[in-house]
Amino acid sequence: MISELKALFEYYEKEKGIDREKMVDALQSALLAASKRSIGPARELRIEIDPEKGAIKAYAKLLAVEGKPQNPFEELSIKNARKLKPDAQIGDEIDIEVTPKDFGRIAAQTAKQTWMQRLREAEKANLYEEFKDRTGDVVNGTIRRFDKSDVVVDLGKFEGVMTSRERVPTEDYTSGDRMRFYVKAVEKSTSRGPEIILSRSHPNFVRRLFEFEVSEISDRTVEIVSIAREAGYRTKVAVNSADDKVDPVGACVGLRGARVKNIVRELNNEKVDIIRWSKDVSEFTKEALKPIKILSIHVDEEHKRVHLTVSEEELSKAIGRKGQNARLTSRLIGYDLVIEKDEHAVKVFEGHVDVAVHQLAKSLDVSEDVARKLVDNGIPDLSVLATADAEDLAEMLDGDLELARAIVDKVAAKTSGSAAV
């Protein structure tokens, strides 16, 4: 028992960093509870442990009484008291060792279980003290096991937990994988004691990776102004420098893209856009949406909203798949984003169509409905109409072959008349 306790003291002190005095206190409390069953309800029972040797002794304070003790757990005859303390008087409290011969065997199991519980609590207290100021750090860890949807990570002396909310949906996690994690929080009051909450999906994980890779960010020559992230898919990072001689985007990209490539590799090929920040919201929005060409832009400062128009061809790109590009840009600039296609070009085109319909109807002496059917089918004027035959026109005119032939004749007459002139 003694050698076993000594070995446990040394192990938890060296490997777990738990103070030996705390271990002694925990064990004394545990043994005291166990001793009451093996020794009995002795008066003022206490346990003494030698922290260096691991020796255990139990003592009680018994009252010296005259004659035969009525309660052997609380009293001691004056005769026996004077064997231990020659000058003992009736009513004196006498320290007497009450360690049973089989105390180690009987109490060890119960004591060990209780002690381990106390040690776990002490470990958790140490965990909180060590990590409470590390919120926001990036740590290395090894994935050890899974607790339902949570990932338990070995951080060395301690374990951290990455909940399902902090996982990256596109990443697969396997026991034994060594990865970097962002310390999102160290929570003290939880049902399972203090916990280190880890994350790989938090936007600040990307921020810290840039700080590690880009010296200009770590020395504050370049500043990360804002980050918008959809973990596993895409991140937009806005950067700025107060030094006009420093290109903040170039500094983050690095020579031949080396710096940003290291970050993308750590993020398992998540797309990272590095954007030059501007205090002008219009310019900042244009930078955030490059290479999309913005045709018009209006900033509503009162409602924190940006209205912009793009061509119909670029509308889907500006919005992005499932709205991702617009959503990330909105978070990055801090304004609601309203993207619409440019209606001006449509109106101009429709105006040209109306003119063509009117001129064709007048030239052929037909209704504008008939002329519009021809224009809608790619025949805007007489020169194009002259190349079509009656059967083709009839299909455009809902099968009206008679009307089609009449139009062909009119066109022939007009074109031949023009040629004669």
Written description of the protein model:
It is a single chain. The protein has helices spanning about 1-15, 20-40, 80-85, 105-130, 205-215, 215-220, 250-255, 260-265, 280-290, 310-320, 325-335, 345-365, 370-375, 380-385, 390-395, 400-420, and strands at about 45-50, 55-65, 75, 95, 140-145, 150-155, 160, 180-185, 195-200, 220-230, 235-240, 270-275, 295-300, 305-310, 335-340. It has about 425 residues and is an alpha/beta fold. It has five domains: about 1-130, NusA, N-terminal domain (N Utilization Substance Protein A, Chain:P, domain 4), CATH 3.30.1480; about 130-200, OB fold (Dihydrolipoamide Acetyltransferase, E2P) (Beta Barrel); about 205-275, K homology (KH) domain (GMP Synthetase, Chain A, domain 3, 2-Layer Sandwich), CATH 3.30.300.20; about 280-340, 2-Layer Sandwich (GMP Synthetase, Chain A, domain 3); about 350-420, Orthogonal Bundle (DNA polymerase, domain 1). The strands form four sheets. The protein has a five-stranded mixed beta barrel. About 25% of the residues are buried. The mean pLDDT is about 85.
Itemize the secondary structure elements and their pairings.
Blueprint lengths: L1 H14 L4 H19 L7 E4 L6 E10 L9 E3 H7 L8 E5 L5 H29 L6 E10 L2 E5 L4 E4 L15 E10 L7 E5 L3 H11 L1 H4 L3 E9 L3 E8 L6 H6 L4 H9 L4 E6 L4 H9 L6 E5 L4 E6 L1 H8 L4 H10 L2 E6 L1 H22 L3 H9 L5 H4 L4 H7 L4 H20 L1
Parallel strand pairs: 2-3, 7-9, 11-12, 14-15
Antiparallel strand pairs: 1-2, 2-4, 5-6, 5-8, 6-7, 8-9, 10-11, 13-14
Helix pairs in contact: 2-4, 5-8, 9-11, 12-13, 15-16
